[in-house]
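task queued by scheduler; priority normal; single chain, no ligands, no partner chains; default sampling; output format set to C-alpha coordinates
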Amino acid sequence: MPSGFTLIEALLASVILTLVVGAILMPFTAGAQNAVQNAREVLAANLAQELMEEILSKSFNDPDGTNAGETNRMKWDDMRDYNNFSESQGNIRNLNGEIFTDPLAANMSRAARVESVYVAGQATSNPPTFLRITVEIRYKGQVIKKISRLVYENKK
Protein backbone atom coordinates (compact mmCIF):
# COMPACT_ATOMS: atom_id res chain seq x y z
CA MET A 1 0.00 0.00 0.00
CA PRO A 2 1.21 3.48 -0.76
CA SER A 3 2.06 5.61 2.27
CA GLY A 4 0.99 9.24 2.73
CA PHE A 5 -2.06 11.27 3.59
CA THR A 6 -5.43 10.75 2.07
CA LEU A 7 -7.51 13.71 0.99
CA ILE A 8 -9.78 13.33 4.01
CA GLU A 9 -6.81 13.28 6.40
CA ALA A 10 -5.38 16.42 4.81
CA LEU A 11 -8.72 18.25 5.05
CA LEU A 12 -9.16 17.18 8.67
CA ALA A 13 -5.64 18.41 9.49
CA SER A 14 -6.41 21.76 7.80
CA VAL A 15 -9.60 22.19 9.82
CA ILE A 16 -7.83 21.39 13.08
CA LEU A 17 -4.98 23.77 12.24
CA THR A 18 -7.48 26.56 11.45
CA LEU A 19 -9.29 26.04 14.76
CA VAL A 20 -6.03 26.06 16.73
CA VAL A 21 -4.78 29.25 15.04
CA GLY A 22 -8.17 30.92 15.62
CA ALA A 23 -8.12 29.96 19.30
CA ILE A 24 -4.59 31.34 19.68
CA LEU A 25 -5.38 34.66 17.95
CA MET A 26 -8.72 35.32 19.69
CA PRO A 27 -7.24 36.66 22.99
CA PHE A 28 -4.91 38.96 21.07
CA THR A 29 -7.83 40.39 19.08
CA ALA A 30 -9.89 40.89 22.23
CA GLY A 31 -6.91 42.53 23.92
CA ALA A 32 -6.44 44.95 21.03
CA GLN A 33 -10.13 45.87 21.11
CA ASN A 34 -9.94 46.48 24.87
CA ALA A 35 -6.86 48.66 24.42
CA VAL A 36 -8.67 50.82 21.85
CA GLN A 37 -11.74 51.07 24.11
CA ASN A 38 -9.60 52.08 27.09
CA ALA A 39 -7.74 54.69 25.02
CA ARG A 40 -11.10 56.07 23.83
CA GLU A 41 -12.36 56.36 27.42
CA VAL A 42 -9.18 58.14 28.55
CA LEU A 43 -9.48 60.55 25.63
CA ALA A 44 -13.15 61.18 26.48
CA ALA A 45 -12.24 61.95 30.10
CA ASN A 46 -9.52 64.36 28.98
CA LEU A 47 -11.82 66.13 26.50
CA ALA A 48 -14.54 66.48 29.13
CA GLN A 49 -12.11 67.79 31.74
CA GLU A 50 -10.56 70.22 29.26
CA LEU A 51 -13.93 71.81 28.48
CA MET A 52 -14.92 71.84 32.17
CA GLU A 53 -11.71 73.68 33.08
CA GLU A 54 -12.28 76.15 30.26
CA ILE A 55 -15.79 76.89 31.55
CA LEU A 56 -14.61 77.17 35.16
CA SER A 57 -11.96 79.69 34.14
CA LYS A 58 -14.73 82.17 33.21
CA SER A 59 -16.61 84.53 35.52
CA PHE A 60 -19.70 83.33 37.35
CA ASN A 61 -21.60 86.42 36.17
CA ASP A 62 -21.15 88.31 32.92
CA PRO A 63 -18.47 90.97 33.68
CA ASP A 64 -19.85 93.52 31.22
CA GLY A 65 -23.51 92.56 31.72
CA THR A 66 -24.11 91.86 28.03
CA ASN A 67 -23.40 89.25 25.40
CA ALA A 68 -22.79 91.90 22.75
CA GLY A 69 -19.77 91.04 20.63
CA GLU A 70 -19.46 87.55 22.10
CA THR A 71 -19.79 85.92 18.71
CA ASN A 72 -17.57 82.89 19.30
CA ARG A 73 -16.13 80.75 22.05
CA MET A 74 -12.88 82.71 22.21
CA LYS A 75 -14.85 85.81 23.23
CA TRP A 76 -17.15 84.24 25.80
CA ASP A 77 -16.57 85.79 29.20
CA ASP A 78 -18.87 84.00 31.64
CA MET A 79 -19.93 80.44 32.46
CA ARG A 80 -23.49 80.82 31.18
CA ASP A 81 -22.20 81.54 27.67
CA TYR A 82 -21.47 77.79 27.42
CA ASN A 83 -25.08 76.73 27.98
CA ASN A 84 -26.19 74.46 25.10
CA PHE A 85 -22.68 74.44 23.66
CA SER A 86 -22.08 71.49 21.33
CA GLU A 87 -19.52 70.18 18.88
CA SER A 88 -20.53 67.54 16.34
CA GLN A 89 -18.72 64.28 15.58
CA GLY A 90 -15.24 64.90 14.28
CA ASN A 91 -15.45 68.64 15.02
CA ILE A 92 -14.17 68.88 18.57
CA ARG A 93 -12.02 71.99 18.76
CA ASN A 94 -9.61 73.44 21.25
CA LEU A 95 -9.98 77.00 22.52
CA ASN A 96 -7.97 78.31 19.54
CA GLY A 97 -10.47 76.78 17.11
CA GLU A 98 -8.20 73.97 15.91
CA ILE A 99 -9.89 70.60 15.32
CA PHE A 100 -8.67 67.82 17.58
CA THR A 101 -7.00 65.41 15.14
CA ASP A 102 -6.61 62.23 17.19
CA PRO A 103 -8.20 59.39 15.13
CA LEU A 104 -9.98 58.16 18.26
CA ALA A 105 -11.88 61.48 18.41
CA ALA A 106 -13.31 61.10 14.89
CA ASN A 107 -16.65 59.72 16.10
CA MET A 108 -16.83 61.77 19.30
CA SER A 109 -18.99 64.79 19.99
CA ARG A 110 -18.99 67.11 22.98
CA ALA A 111 -21.69 69.18 24.66
CA ALA A 112 -22.12 71.36 27.74
CA ARG A 113 -25.04 72.65 29.76
CA VAL A 114 -24.97 75.38 32.39
CA GLU A 115 -28.06 75.53 34.58
CA SER A 116 -29.04 77.83 37.42
CA VAL A 117 -29.56 76.07 40.74
CA TYR A 118 -31.58 77.55 43.57
CA VAL A 119 -31.33 76.32 47.14
CA ALA A 120 -34.35 75.72 49.35
CA GLY A 121 -35.89 79.00 50.43
CA GLN A 122 -34.12 81.07 47.78
CA ALA A 123 -36.48 83.12 45.63
CA THR A 124 -36.15 82.36 41.92
CA SER A 125 -36.65 86.07 41.27
CA ASN A 126 -33.15 86.60 42.70
CA PRO A 127 -30.00 85.66 40.76
CA PRO A 128 -28.92 82.06 41.41
CA THR A 129 -26.20 81.31 43.92
CA PHE A 130 -25.14 78.10 42.19
CA LEU A 131 -24.60 76.88 38.64
CA ARG A 132 -24.56 73.23 37.62
CA ILE A 133 -22.14 72.64 34.76
CA THR A 134 -22.44 69.35 32.87
CA VAL A 135 -20.12 68.21 30.08
CA GLU A 136 -20.90 65.12 28.01
CA ILE A 137 -18.74 63.24 25.54
CA ARG A 138 -20.53 60.95 23.11
CA TYR A 139 -19.12 58.25 20.88
CA LYS A 140 -21.32 57.48 17.89
CA GLY A 141 -24.22 59.11 19.72
CA GLN A 142 -23.81 57.17 22.99
CA VAL A 143 -22.68 58.97 26.16
CA ILE A 144 -19.31 57.54 27.21
CA LYS A 145 -18.27 60.25 29.69
CA LYS A 146 -20.31 62.74 31.69
CA ILE A 147 -18.99 65.05 34.37
CA SER A 148 -20.87 67.62 36.44
CA ARG A 149 -19.79 70.33 38.78
CA LEU A 150 -21.75 72.56 41.13
CA VAL A 151 -20.23 76.04 41.22
CA TYR A 152 -20.91 78.57 43.97
CA GLU A 153 -20.81 82.31 43.39
CA ASN A 154 -18.40 83.61 45.96
CA LYS A 155 -19.59 87.17 46.66
CA LYS A 156 -16.78 88.92 48.44
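post-processing summary
- The CA atoms of residues 51 and 69 lie 22 Å apart.
- The two ends are 103 Å apart (CA to CA).
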